[in-house]
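Holo prediction — nicotinamide-adenine-dinucleotide.
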Amino acid sequence: MKILVTGGSGFIGSSFIRMLLESKDFFVVNMDKLTYAAKGKNLEHMKISDNKRYKFVHGDICDSRLVEKVFEEEKPEIIFNFAAESHVDKSIVNSYLFEKSNILGAGNIFRSAIEHGTKRVVQISTDEVYGSIKKGSFFEEDKLNPSSPYSASKTAAELIALSYHKTYGFPVIITRSANNYGEYQFPEKLLPLFITNLIDGKKVPLMWSTENPGLNQRDWLHVEDNCRAIWFVSQNGDDGEIYNIPGENERTNMYMTQLLLDQFGFGEEMIERIEHRKGHDFRYSISGEKLKDLGFIYNHLDLKEEIGKLVEWYKNNSDWWRPLKK
Ligand code: NAD
């Protein structure tokens, strides 16, 4: 089976390609623009970029002619659209690239897929499309209420995909996953930033105020479980359906910070209090009932154990992350 993965050089996409290539039945084409987020050369570091069942196309999904050419030449049977600008803080400073790649770029993929009669497209989305929830959890049919330009751009792409499903029968599935963590995450995101700072004996910047001393809550999902769940719904889900992929591990940012400080034997003196970001969502929580009803089973639910392994990985792979912090 030939599979097109866009944004496959980033954090989740590279983990997804590594998983796919474990099966001899798949040939994977990765189309990636190689933004700053791909600077780590994850696939090269994983030693799979020269795999005979892997092909790289350097390109931007906003380039509709190139997208069309890739569809024409490769004729993928299934597509996973991971390509996106993904850092919320960057979207607050300048949202232009987010609107371009996450909405217009996604639209190019959808239209070419329709044109070529592609059997299935999986649009990778996020729990952030729901916005914040004080109590309880969001279900797939709940109202969308994004807070940042990033999450608004992901919401827009979803709505375009679903409108194409209603209008043209576009065979799309949407996944909304929680906060991913794992190997090869760019050290701008909370866990790798904190871990790599602590390895270097530097303080960790925690968003803090007297009313909200680091109590924002996130649901932590191991990247390998996310990749397995994305593949699982692509094979077992239905066209036009949305699937939440929670992490089943909701924790406050303060809890996660303390967990890391404990791993390094440091105390709270290593926390640098910084202002909350504008529109900082307090809590994300999504229900995984639909995913579980479909039969998905998690492999990595012991957060403390997984974080311990992750800290070891970053300690042993400073050749990968150190150049990215410059
Ligand atoms: P990432 O920033 O690590 O990787 C994104 C990749 O997309 C990079 O390789 C980049 O070069 C590529 N890219 C960006 N714009 C492109 C364009 N116009 N054309 C082609 N390639 C382009 O992001 P990630 O954390 O791996 O996230 C992947 C997807 O998962 C995104 O769609 C994101 O919205 C979604 N998601 C991420 C999380 C998370 O916790 N990281 C959670 C839920 C959903």
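READOUT: The mean pLDDT is 97.
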